[in-house]
Write a structure and sequence with these properties.
CATH topology of the largest domain in chain A: L-amino peptidase D-ALA esterase/amidase
Radius of gyration of chain A: 22 Å
CATH class of the largest domain in chain A: Alpha Beta
Largest sheet of chain A: 6 strands, mixed
Strand order of the largest sheet of chain A: 4-3-10-9-8-7
CATH architecture of the largest domain in chain A: 4-Layer Sandwich
Strand content of chain A: 15-25%
Oligomer: homodimer
Number of strands of chain A: 16
Distance between the termini of chain A: 56 Å
Largest interface: A-B, 86 and 85 residues
Helix content of chain A: 25-40%
Number of helices of chain A: 14
Order of helices and strands of chain A: HEEEHEEHEHHEEEHEHEHHHHHEEEHEEH
Chain lengths: ~450, ~450
């Protein structure tokens, strides 16, 4: 009974709203998807989401890859055009258009022109300025978008967009590449109106695609979050960045950060709920709803990693602060040896300990540079130790396997641990015994199927 | 003919002495190996190298893993005991003892006591202080060394050590775990004696083991370099660190930095060549010889990576400086997607470009923190761009596949490129077009066999 009470044996409680994995299109948006022939397979490859009541508030987080693809550069430029400071982080958007099958990355000036033509086609179809169109692409690097095909597809799809939930699901399906499952999440948030004491409900929904070339620091492939709450763009950006640090930045499938990764968050304001101001309880509630949807989508992406059979969740407590806990969690789920061991249901805690001991090498400071001043990042890079082996405790799937303060390796019923690991999700819990910091990260096992899938993929 | 002259199609010339892959034991050392029963397989698992003429000058580079194993901590302490400043980087050593089969990592205070007993056994057998014994271990994390077995093995092996080359080869064989090939390299360096105008020749030889849990920043598994040159320990340390930055720090098999990685460099002075002083041409020549042996051993380790069928060498020119070139090269060979593509002989330059674009995310600055002041590291972490897609050029196995200044993707005879990639070594050449910096990194393809090998490995 004592053992059951040991917190390292249980998941860290996540204080976020409940999420459902279904398509719920928030008010103020229309959406749809179609198969227009970019993919040779004939599967859906064009997704479109439009704000029906005029431009929505918009926020974005983009890949840090230096080889950012044309859709990323165009979206950044469109947001920057209307943003104080022009960093391309937030602004207003009328529509998001996504193509799958060709990433439009490493295509040079021609690729930029192609992407601009795609945005222009959406703008024409909707009667809005092209700068209000945001773009996403995913697929093979280095191939040109078939602009004529995409433009006529847009002209056909736009009038067919629906404000029903099916439109959002169709858009989610059209994002998919090697995904085996469509990725959807939705939740609601209650927003009181201080003016008339009424209570409104806003919806936050998201769609996403995985599933290879996924690694921390906004290396999340594509996701679109929508809400009908009324939120100014700068606050929306703060919410999105806050959620990303704890969700998509903690997601790794294979350590490769894509050229195209993008998350958009659009707010239509069509719920009729009161405007959400910074620093209020409503802003906190909405931020939690955004994070809940983001976290669930990130977990769906990890679980559907290429070749994956198991979602690996690493939760770390007892770190000196939350960023350190997140860095350790990331290092564990990113380890090829840990991933292979989980695939083999091998409770190889030595690899987990070694991966935790490497957290300071994996650019932990760099990874969170967005949230750290350079001086702090440099100091953290040279921090003498984030792990004390004598205080470290590790549990795999609810079994205590290592306790640094109690002689290290613990006696194990290996078959029992293996049985617990043979589940859809394998929880790896670490307690560093150093402080109050907590964090988590999401990954998947490394299987032969990942190798087969990625060695046969054709340029 | 123009194409043949394009430097991006050819390897970057490496200005280092030629190396032979055979066992040559430098003068002043005796060595040997034995199977004493640590490994269940009955293969050799105890290696011993001793300086025959008293303590040799010694230098070391150890794993940066926070979970450094008992043999690492003990060796550091022994070197630190006699070192000004006490950092455990150089000093004197009478012997190196290596055990394979158990890593003696994450074994706590008991593991430290075990490792001290092993060093003590060597000290007793040689009649030297225990602080002159350096230790190496490799194998499963979390299992205790069988101290009695190791101690009696040492007592038996020590009198059987030989000054012949066979002793060094036996030691190299006893280092092996999942290695499929023994790793040996040797070269010579001419050292004139300014006193009497005579010319002496010193030998530099090395042995090493791979082959999993290998990643940059001194994550090299085990290597022992020996020379009979006469070199003060601090200069030896400078040479070893310089070589490591360009060789073992540029080696990755699976992105996991082990708890036990260690390189030792011992100099007996028994060649009778003149003492080598810092800043001389002789010091430069000896450093080049050390680097040549280190580079060749690192390449052997990469080629023999777990499940590997192909050595991937990435060479980068045109970077703003050498560290940037090395960071880009590392990022390319570390990419799971690039590794899987090479395994499938897929000339997927898009993945190479994307991996190059991620170099700044992989803790590039952190990785070379040893050579960079924190302020420089922080600045580099925030550097705006190390890659300009419009200047980047990529060649795979001698075929130009991407030229940013010439429209990007180049027309390819895919079958011809695939045929060129089907070799023991696949050269990936990048030219960044930004400056004069060059660098290289070594890795291997990612195969189904890696996954099988590492998911079946038992704790």
């Amino acid at each position: 009974m004592t053992e059951l009470a040991d917190p390292v044996l249980a998941p860290i409680p996540v204080d976020l709203p409940q999420v459902e994995r279904r398509a719920v299109l928030p008010r103020g948006f229309a959406a749809g998807g179609a198969a227009i022939g970019i993919k040779r397979s004939g599967r859906p490859d064009l997704a479109l989401v439009a704000a029906t009541g005029g431009p929505a508030a918009a926020a974005a987080v983009f890949t840090p890859n230096r080889f950012a693809a044309a859709p990323v550069r165009l979206s950044q430029a469109h947001l920057a055009a209307g943003e104080p400071g022009g960093q391309g982080r937030y602004g207003h958007a009328r529509a998001i258009v996504a193509t799958s099958g060709s990433a439009n990355a490493a295509t040079g000036a021609a690729g930029d022109a192609d992407q601009a033509a795609v945005a222009e086609a959406v703008a024409t179809a909707l009667g809005s300025p092209a700068t209000e169109v945001l773009t996403l692409s995913t697929g093979v690097i280095g191939t040109r978008l078939p602009v004529q095909v995409v433009s006529s597809g847009i002209a056909t799809l736009t009038p067919a967009l629906t404000t029903g939930d099916a439109g959002l699901e169709a858009a989610a399906r059209a994002l998919m590449t090697t995904d085996s499952r469509v990725k959807l999440a939705t939740t609601t948030v209650v927003i009181p109106d201080p003016g008339d004491f009424s209570v409104g409900v806003a919806t936050v929904s998201g769609i996403a695609k995985g599933v290879g070339m996924i690694h921390p620091r906004m290396a999340t492939m594509l996701a679109v979050l929508l809400t009908d709450a009324s939120v100014p763009p700068s606050l929306l950006s703060t919410m999105l960045r806050g959620a990303t640090v704890r969700t998509w930045d903690q997601l790794t499938v294979d350590g490769d950060t894509s050229t195209n990764d993008t998350v958009f968050l659009l707010a239509s304001g069509a719920s009729g709920t009161a405007p959400v101001d910074p620093g209020t309880a409503e802003a906190a509630a909405l931020a939690a709803a955004v994070e809940a949807v983001a976290r669930d989508l990130a977990r769906q992406q990890a679980a559907d990693g290429e070749g994956a059979t198991t979602l690996i969740t690493c939760q770390v407590s007892g770190a000196i602060d939350d960023p350190e806990a997140r860095a350790v969690a990331r290092s564990v789920v990113a380890s090829s040896l840990v991933k292979a061991a989980v695939h083999g249901r091998d409770p190889n805690w030595g690899r987990i300990a070694a991966a935790a001991g490497n957290a300071h090498l994996a650019g932990a400071a760099v990874l969170e540079a967005g949230g750290l001043a350079p001086a702090v990042a440099a100091e953290r890079a040279d921090a003498p130790a984030t792990i004390d082996p004598d205080r470290l405790r590790i549990a795999i799937a609810g079994h205590l396997v290592f306790d640094g303060a109690a002689g290290g390796p613990q006696p194990l019923d290996v078959e029992a641990v293996r049985a617990s690991m043979a589940a859809e999700e394998c929880l790896v819990r670490l307690d560093l015994g150093l402080g109050e910091g907590t964090g988590e990260a999401f990954g998947c096992d490394l299987s032969e199927a990942y190798v087969v899938e990625n060695s046969e993929y054709t340029t």
